[in-house]
Specification:
This protein is α/β, with parallel strands linked by helices and 307 residues long. Helices cover 41% and strands 20% of the residues. The protein is built from ten helices and twelve strands. It has helices spanning 29-44, 58-70, 87-95, 123-137, 157-170, 188-202, 214-227, 244-251, 266-277, 295-304; strands at 18-23, 48-53, 75-78, 100-102, 117-120, 145-153, 176-184, 208-211, 236-241, 257-260, 285-287, 292-294. The strands form two sheets. A six-stranded parallel β-sheet has the order 2-1-3-4-5-11, with helices on both faces. A six-stranded mixed β-sheet has the order 7-6-8-9-10-12, with helices on both faces. The longest helix has 16 residues, at 29-44. The chain starts with 17 loop residues before the first strand and ends with a helix. 49% of the residues are buried. The structure holds beta-D-fucofuranose. Beta-D-fucofuranose (GYE) is lined by residues 27-28, 30-31, 104-105, 158, 186, 213, 240-241, 261. Residues 27-28, 30-31, 104-105, 158, 186, 213, 240-241, 261 line the site of beta-D-fucofuranose. This is Simple sugar transport system substrate-binding protein. It is found in: Cell envelope. Residues 19-281 form the Periplasmic binding protein domain.
Length: 307
């Protein structure tokens, strides 16, 4: 994109690379691990990092980006709350000649030269992985499978992708039905509330919960227990992220399957920043490779899990 061809300034010890990091919020265990990874990796590389947190508010995030533009940072890194609504502020960054790296969510803007690179996951594939496990798990059962979906933040890239990928697989299965799909915000509290609402409407008819992240799944576990059912047994639960807390819940049988989403993006991010400053062309998309966890594989993974 056009911002990639700008001459780069001289980086010295007295004037190191400066990144403005407009983080989206504090919503999840994944997010805390991501923030720590970025801060730590910047320190390791001698890169100056200015950190702002928008607490899941788009106007706050726009304000942060504007502040970083005014401070003439070398890069802006941000995790967009939602996909749309960034054209104006990213236009301002482009005008100022500041490249923007998206970590870990994509945006939908009219002009893709408004951002330089995306570093993160393939959310549609994560949704497919969740659904593939379910269809294998339920293979051979002739009964209807009633699913409650707990969605992440409305119009956010991970919520949209995880829904699309899951539905893509489920739609070919005649017995599967999403009986309720509730919009959430990726937090544990909210997951619990939404699950109580779903239980109030469908009660014991619910076979499966598909949660767009671990924190909401952990909230759903609390709700199911409060309702008097056994999470992982009476109701199967699938989630995405694979934080320590989720791996532990897999180990105790309260969760059934977790699709991994890697938050440790700091090192890749710093590498991209340094490559860019050295005049290298960055790939538009840098996609992380990830696995999945079952109750059997979770215990071993837990010993090595950093977050
Ligand atoms: O899965 C969820 C979160 O954008 C990939 O945001 C991220 C998602 C992550 O808070 O837990």
């Amino acid at each position: 994109s056009s911002t990639q061809n700008k001459p780069v300034r001289q980086i010295t010890e007295a004037a190191p690379i400066k990144i403005g990091f407009a983080q989206v919020g504090l919503e999840s265990g994944w997010r805390l691990a991501h923030t720590n990874s970025v801060i730590h990796a910047a320190k390791e590389e001698g890169i100056e990092l200015l950190y702002d947190n928008a607490l899941q508010q788009q106007d706050k995030q726009i304000e942060s980006i504007r502040k970083f533009i005014a401070m003439k940072v070398d890069f802006i890194v941000f995790s967009p709350l939602v996909k749309t609504g960034w054209d104006v502020v990213l236009g301002e960054a482009k005008q100022a000649g500041i490249p923007v790296i998206l970590s870990d969510r994509e945006v939908k803007v009219s002009d893709d030269s408004l951002w330089t690179a995306y570093i993160g996951s393939d959310f549609v594939e994560e949704g497919r992985r969740a659904a593939r496990w379910l269809t294998q798990e339920m293979a051979g059962s002739s009964e209807q499978v009633s699913i409650v979906e707990l969605q992440g933040t409305k119009d956010s890239d991970p919520a949209v992708g995880r829904k699309v990928g899951f539905e893509e697989i489920i739609q070919d299965e005649p017995g599967y039905r999403i009986v309720q799909s509730l919009q959430g915000d990726f937090t544990l509290e909210n997951g619990k509330q939404l699950m109580l609402e779903a239980l109030g409407q469908h009660g014991k008819d619910i076979d499966v919960v598909y949660s767009h992240n671990d924190d909401m799944a952990l909230g759903a576990i609390q709700a199911i227990e409060q309702y008097g059912l056994k999470p992982g047994k009476d109701i199967k639960i699938i989630s995405v992220d694979a934080t320590r807390a989720a791996l532990k819940a897999l180990g105790t049988g309260k969760l059934n399957f977790v699709v991994e989403c890697n938050p440790l993006l700091g090192p890749q991010l710093m590498k991209a920043v340094k490559d860019y400053m050295a005049g290298k062309e960055l790939p538009m998309k840098i996609i992380t490779s990830e696995g999945v966890f079952t109750q059997d594989t979770a215990k071993r993974a837990l010993a090595r899990r950093e977050y």
